[in-house]
């Protein structure tokens, strides 16, 4: 298989993985749970997901910063994996925001659907912050603070590397 075909296959697989992540985001059950223990376990699970995604993105960023070889198959694979982990990070925070809004309706203003949560996570990531959806409660503000630090420190760095590598790819 030629290098170009492998790169196209890698891109296609990354795109399909991102689409699968979005589908999972929209179908995963998140009904409110009055049981404090189960809520704590779900919260801990969400925190573990955030830590795992942060680790994956950080390791991909470190790998990209070390890469100084011509744009080839290993680099394309690393960029595709980084793009997938960036989407996963965004969706994990959107889901965490949605779960929090469902379990404690007073924590967020105007966050009622998964689309609202995804919209809010993207607005937070891009630092646009229209204000139509915002954190109101203390727990929501704490989650959003973690989301902002994660977005700036991990996702923005990773996204900038992906864009830089993709812009330089045709020139090499």
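-> sequence recovered:
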């Amino acid at each position: 298989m030629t290098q170009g075909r492998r790169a196209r296959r890698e891109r296609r697989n990354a795109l399909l993985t991102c689409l699968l992540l979005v589908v999972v985001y929209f179908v995963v059950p998140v009904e409110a749970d009055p049981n404090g223990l189960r809520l704590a376990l779900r919260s801990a699970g969400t925190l573990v997901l955030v830590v795992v995604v942060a680790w994956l993105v950080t390791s991909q960023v470190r790998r990209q910063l070390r890469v100084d070889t011509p744009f080839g198959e290993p680099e394309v694979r690393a960029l595709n994996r980084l793009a997938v982990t960036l989407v996963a990070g965004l969706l994990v925070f959107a889901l965490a925001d949605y779960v929090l809004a469902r379990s404690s309706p007073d924590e967020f203003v105007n966050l009622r659907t998964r689309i609202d949560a995804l919209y809010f996570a993207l607005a937070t990531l891009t630092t646009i912050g229209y204000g139509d959806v915002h954190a109101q409660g203390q727990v929501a503000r704490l989650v959003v603070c973690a989301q902002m630090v994660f977005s700036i420190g991990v996702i923005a760095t990773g996204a900038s590397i992906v864009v830089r590598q993709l812009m330089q790819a045709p020139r090499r």
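The radius of gyration is 18 Å.
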